[in-house]
Write a structure and sequence with these properties.
single chain; 77 residues; alpha+beta; YefM-like fold; 3 helices; 27% helix
Length: 77
């Protein structure tokens, strides 16, 4: 496990990320004290499929209509 200071981490962030992706853990320190750990993700990021909720959600035509007066008063409006 490699330890680097914040200045070095900012200067060489791309290289440190590449090393983390390869499995190395990098500790980032401030004034010699560890404050963060840079590690690669252990699972691939999955992209969301669009349209999974199609047909399951209904937005009515009056969705953005003003609230009734009694509800506005109850909410402090």
């Amino acid at each position: 496990m490699k330890t680097v200071n914040i200045h070095e981490a900012k200067t060489h962030l791309s290289r440190l990320i590449a090393r983390a992706v390869e499995g190395e853990e990098i500790v980032i320190a401030k004034a010699g004290r560890p404050v963060a750990k840079l590690v690669g993700l252990t699972h691939p990021i999955r992209r969301r499929k669009l349209g999974l909720a199609r047909g399951k959600i209904v937005i009515h035509d009056d969705f953005d209509a003003p609230l009734p007066e009694d509800i506005r008063r109850a909410l402090g409006g």
